[in-house]
Amino acid sequence: MHKLLLAPFVFSGLLVVSHAFAEGDSRIAVEMPTMMQDHMRANMRDHLRSINEILNFLAVGKYDAAADIAEKRIGMSSLEAHGASHMAGFMPKGMQDTGTAMHQAASRFAVIAQETGVTHDLPRALGALNQVTLQCVACHAGYRLK
Question: What is the pLDDT of residue 97?
């Protein structure tokens, strides 16, 4: 079949799959005003960009730079900048707890990343970063914005 003729069929199949996924989604739906949803999504995109930058700095041995990004943009020091106190009231307790655990893990990672500049124990730093992303995975697996 010609590629141009196949495209509409593939596209329509994706629509069916994505619709079926939404219907079978067992995650807890969290309701909040659209403005707050947009704010939360922007925060999550920044967290993802931050993790990408952290990985890049770890790869080239710039451990202090990785630590700085982790603390300022994901760690406990980032809560005010991200409007965490305003967001928390819209989140179920479990989602709040997971978010707090993620911010705490990022602050712990920041300390370990700084130590890695001396110890060169990159596996330890990566293990600490994994504790950050573990919280991201747990939250996205358990909750969705409605």
Answer: 96
